[in-house]
Amino acid sequence: MMSGNYTTIDNQNVSGSVPAVSDPPGQVSVKFNDSTSLQTFPPSGAAHGKIASAGGPPRDADDTFSKPVSNSSEPQQSGGWFKVFTVAAYQPYFDVDTSDVLERIKDSLLPFRGSFNEKTASNPDLYGPFWICTTLIFVAASIGTFATYLAHKLQHKEWNYDINLVTWSAGLFYGYVLIVPLCLYIILKYFSAPSTLVQLFCLYGYSLFIFIPAMCLSIIPVEIFRWVITGVAGLMSALFVAQNLRNHIMSAGERWFLIVAGIFLLQLALSFVLKLYLFNIHV
């Protein structure tokens, strides 16, 4: 029976194959064999050359750049010394609370205790030293400038702002906190009494806090008072560093006293330099 371009089969029982009929002109019949079966997806792993597991990559896949599983026993590859150029390497040294910083500042104002290194041995920080040095730079520039301004106005003289005061104080404080602990680290390593470099940075950074109130008091226009303030601040800072390093340096042998004395005198020299260049007012 023909209807348009389609051919229909009436009252035929199809049992797996189409009965053989003669092909009309211009048409081709399609036959289905009983032995033909449909493949299922995904294919089973029994067949040769097929994917062994439906949920994973092929066995010959390259997993060079695959991320290791957290529970895997494979060791994590470290970045070597290149990690010092990453932010993550310094993040633990800035992980401190405000209460921790205030407690360490209070210890720096009590130099005779000598317990600062013991308290910070497990968690030395760079947050406090960084902001102490930064505060010192701006306090030194602002207080020094204001004190010079008052001295000129009291004598009715012309006053000019010195921009070099900021750059000079920045080089002094940042340079001192970086270079002196680094040199001390090398010396202690040579005498077989090594200390961690970060802990030395932490110690020297907090030792400079006493100079912040000293600079604020130096605004008083009395020269002898400025010398007293500078001397007291330098003595407290030097005692703080020497007391906290004394017990550790004693293990270096008979020369421990010379090392501690050098640390003490170097800290006093810093206060003398501050008096000459920051606490001294020229009119």
Describe what this molecule looks like in 3D:
By secondary structure, the chain is mostly helical. It has 8 helices and 2 strands, in the order E-E-H-H-H-H-H-H-H-H. It has helices at residues 98-108, 116-120, 127-154, 164-190, 197-207, 211-217, 223-249, 256-277; strands at residues 2-3, 6-7. The chain has a two-stranded antiparallel ribbon with strand order 1-2. Strand 1 and strand 2 (6-7) form a beta hairpin. Helix 4 (164-190) packs across helix 5 and helix 7 (223-249) packs antiparallel against helix 8 (256-277). The termini are far apart. Residues 35-77 have low confidence and may be disordered.
Fold blueprint:
Layout: E1 2-3, E2 6-7, H1 98-108, H2 116-120, H3 127-154, H4 164-190, H5 197-207, H6 211-217, H7 223-249, H8 256-277
Overall, the morphology is globular
Portion of residues within helices: 40-55%
Q: Radius of gyration, Cα only, in angstroms?
A: 40 Å
The largest sheet is: 2 strands, antiparallel
Mean pLDDT: 75
Low-confidence stretches: 35-77
Brief write-up:
By secondary structure, the protein is an all-alpha fold.
Please name the defining characteristics of this protein.
single chain, 283 residues, mainly alpha, two-stranded antiparallel ribbon, 2 strands, 8 helices
